[in-house]
Amino acid sequence: MIGLSADPPARNLAWTKQLGLPFRLLSDTDPPGRVARLYGVWDETWGLARRVTFIVDRSRTVRFVEAGSLAVETTGTLDALAALARTR
User: Fold this and answer.
1) DSSP states of 10-55 as a string?
2) Which pTM does this prediction carry?
3) 7-27, pLDDT tens digit by residue?
């Protein structure tokens, strides 16, 4: 399991530790927002990715989508991951 953010690697490592995330958080920075563009969440005006969480399974099926707010909120994502783990 991995996460992806448009933030640089050092910032993602800090977020991972601060939030106690149970997965690695990779950086979508080369070129900036390449993956965010594929998922339609890159904002060209501001040059950043909107806060949207996608859970994608190994077959590349999107299993969960949650639009975020300005604050980092992981509860819905972690609950969705737990629910998906129970169905395996």
Assistant:
1) HHHHHHHHHHT-SSEEEE-BTTBTHHHHHTT-EETTTTEE--EEEE
2) 0.74
3) 899 999 998 999 888 888 899
